[in-house]
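ASSEMBLY PREDICTION REQUEST
Request ID: AP-0331
Submitted by: J.K., bench scientist
Number of chains: two
Total residues: 564
Priority: normal
Notes: Please return the full assembly, not individual chains.
Input sequences:
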Amino acid sequence: MGAKKFYYDHDRLGALVNFLWDNIFKRLEREQDIGAILANNILFRNLSKSELKFIEKIIHIRKYRAGETIFRQNENGVGMYIVVKGRVDISIIDEILLEPNTEKEVVVTRLEPGDFFGELSLVEEISRRSATAISSEDTVLIGFFKPDLLEILERSPSIGVKVVFRLAEVLGRRLKETTEKISQLKKEIRLLGELHEVQHDTRSATPENR
Amino acid sequence: MTPDQQRQKIVKRERWIKLTIVAVILISALVVLLAIPGMLVSFLIAFVITYLFKPPVNYLERMGVGRTIAILIPFIVLGGIIATSSSILIPKAADQISALQLELPKYIKGVSDITIRHTKKFNSALSQFSSVNLSEKIELWLQGASGSLLISIPNWVTQLFTTMILAPFFAFFMLRDGREISRQLLGFVPNHLFELSLNLMYQINQQLGGFIRARLLESVIVGVVVWLGLSIMGFPYSAILAVFAGLTNLIPYIGPIIGAVPAIIVAMVNQEGGTSTIALVGLVYLIAQIVDMLVIIPLVIAKIVDLHPVTVVIVIITGGQFMGVLGMIISIPVASIIKLTFTVFYNHVVDFRS
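STATUS: Completed
Returned structure:
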């Protein structure tokens, strides 16, 4: 009886130790993950370790279940998110209706750990989200919002300015890519137009016309 | 149930649990504040100190001073100022208070004399009605009230002391850990309300800060003007009256009037300069009010969110009903917080498809 009791308690103790260890270890591991993702993110890449620690105390960690909406298109946006774990689907509600009375929500891109989205809301005064973001599996996100950025600028402008510079670089790069894509599309449209004209010309030069 | 539906169910349940946790935390904090006497006042003063100290603390931190030291410095400076001014003022104030205690019977007699004169006129005008011995009743009541006032002063001073110790204590930790606490609280907010709550907290912070700083500046200006005016006139008790006027200015609408009352009583009873003294005293307070208005309207009105004047009156009266004088003072910021909450909520929830 005594031996059995001892065994039972030992087992319980083991379970408790396991539980504590798992939780502490998991927490440390998650904190390490977050720190690593933050350090690697383009916005915070050239910050020192202590500066990164400062940022870590200001950002927010959000957890989402699979299928949970992070934000919807046209909603009021307050800041950006960085994916730590999991996947996020970005989709746009297609205004051009293929069939009457149906709105098509088209998945534009799938984001992986390390990617970030929503950064335009950091600088706009009144910002409306330009797309919908939904997590496709259990996801952990870092949230970095306008009030946080403003606080960093207020308390430690040197860090804030570095971040804002990087932010400008990111937005500028996106603008460049978009402009390149537009000129490429224009080229393709012109090519299609010319092709259509050529076809039209060859068709019009048929036996009937001669 | 499809796995999708199952997941939706889990999400919905988690949302409810999180909301309940947040609500429980907020409500229990409110209960603690309201139930324990003196806690609310200490907390509110701590709040005011926090908002006042935030700009210098942030400035120091910008200059490279570590945050904890940056918070300590304004406290030490304020402590120093209070210590030095107390060592000058307290003997003076003690003198003035003991002088007041000696003079008080004279003032009571004076007020009752004035009332007697006026009731006599009143009675002679209405000679049909039996002249109620109003003057005697008033004198007795005044003696009783001032007696209990003088007795309750030590009680009052001990509560003031506790508040003066608690408030800076709370304020220090609010300045140091306030952000961390609100971040953790936001961690409990369910995801679909998160951005909204964050935005709301930020807006409330900005607005409250501006409001408190503007109001305090206003009180200081009024106090200084009154003190200058009364000192120039050579009016007794100018310091105490100035402080009193500055403090009562915080009460909306009737505050300035309450502030002027003691001076008018003193003027009426002293009767050395006759009616001209009373008029001069009134003028001093009036000038203070005019300066107040000219400085305030650009500063504070911008901070007081557009609340309709009728709303303002209703809000103040309601605040007075619930929590007396304190309620009247905090009623406007509380009302603008409520209005701000609705505005932010509306902006987040209503979709604009442009």
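REVIEWER COMMENTS: The mean pLDDT of chain A is 83.
SIGN-OFF: pending second reviewer
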